[in-house]
Amino acid sequence: MHTVTIQGMSCQHCAASVTKTLQEIPGISTVSVNLAKGQANYAGEIGRDVVKKAITAIGFTVPDEP
User: Fold this and answer.
1) Rounded to the nearest 10 degrees, how much is the dihedral formed by the CA atoms of 48, 66, 40, 11?
2) Does residue 66 surpass a pLDDT of 60?
């Protein structure tokens, strides 16, 4: 599982939007979004840049990794 931090989610609808968006990416098999932690976990060998681009396209921010 890979984890990505997401900024800007404030409700279950936000979490559902992120879940749906990630599930639509070919190669991602499992998605779990934790609204309280502001994170999404996903399984698949997809580059972080693809995930970041998809999430930012729906209006959220994915901070750069330290």
Assistant:
1) -130
2) no
H-state helical runs in the chain = 12-23, 48-57
Radius of gyration of the chain from Cα atoms? 10
Has domain 2-57 been given CATH number 3.30.70.100?
yes
Distance CA 37, CA 24 (A): 22
Per-residue pLDDT of 5-27, as tens digits, reads 999 999 999 999 999 999 999 99
Find, among 62, 13, 23, the residue nearest to 39 by Cα: 62
Give the mean pLDDT of the chain.
Answer: 95
